[in-house]
Amino acid sequence: MSHSSGTPSLPDLALRTLGGSVVAASDESFAEKESLIRPGRPGFQAGTFGSKGQVYDGWETRRRREPGHDWAVVRLGVPGVIRAVVIDTAWFTGNYPPYASVDAACVDGHPSPAELLAAPWTEIVPKAGLTGDAEHHFQVADQARYTHVRLNIHPDGGVARLRVHGEARPDLSVYDGLGLDLAALANGALVTGCSDAFYSAPNNVIAPGLARHQAEGWETARRRDGDNDWLVIRLAGRGVVELAEIDTTNLLHNAPGAVALTGIDGGHEAELLPRTRLQPDTPHRFRLRHPGPVTHVRVDIYPDGGLARVRLHGHLA
């Protein structure tokens, strides 16, 4: 949880709940490759043995007896510019890889694993040492747009999670002439500021799908100062917002009492939705005033509480 305001963390572009997939791996003899991009912290229960040994919430390969190294290829749920990579060896203590590196590639469309392996790859994280049961953070300076990453472990072992944080850069040309959710993280939107993220991350409100429970939305601490909480969404592109969906599903006793929306375009602000009452545990849909294109939308909630999802449907300008 976070007690600070300002710019929220960049999303994990590889996350399974964003559409990421582990499309191929050199080996997964002990633990399945799909675990690498699961949401949440890795779990572990000592003394839990299956037919392949201790059960791990991660990806684990066999012990190599020949030269080379193991690898796993991940299709990002949302293509983008990668800013940081986290390699987490949680719970792997005597079986973690001593080194790892990460490559990236940009292959649009729907390539097969064979086509991906034959594509040109760029090293974005050079070979670096790892320790057991630890998160390893690596900054990435590359400015290119990528669709896939390849985790290389040297020579073998287990990794619990791979996180690929960055700025979404999807191909929006498929929406030419059509409407779209301008606030969708999958379309390139991002929460760039919020007043409070005490219980859960604000970028949750623009994630794909429905929130399954309260923690999959955005929720603030209880306000005692008479002010109100807010967040700012940078839209997928400059556009006209015509319909807002404000969803308080799962927020039974901590939904906001009301919401207001303000469009921002440079130094100009325009009211899109005046302060409007909300109900708990309810999807709300509002047709908006649309005075012109905007690049950002400020969502004010009164006085505090949580939102499961925010959808802002419209057209790119």
UniProtKB/TrEMBL annotation:
Single annotated GO MF: allantoicase activity
One GO-annotated biological process of the protein: purine nucleobase metabolic process
Catalytic activity: allantoate + H2O = (S)-ureidoglycolate + urea
InterPro entries per UniProt: Allantoicase (IPR005164), Allantoicase_dom (IPR015908), Galactose-bd-like_sf (IPR008979)
Pfam families, per database record: Allantoicase
Allantoicase domain: residues covered: 19-168, 188-316
Keywords recorded for this protein, A-Z: Hydrolase, Purine metabolism
Pathway named in the protein's UniProt entry: Nitrogen metabolism; (S)-allantoin degradation; (S)-ureidoglycolate from allantoate (aminidohydrolase route): step 1/1
Enzyme Commission number, as recorded: 3.5.3.4
Recorded family membership: Belongs to the allantoicase family.
Listed name of the protein: Probable allantoicase
Source organism of the structure: Nonomuraea longispora
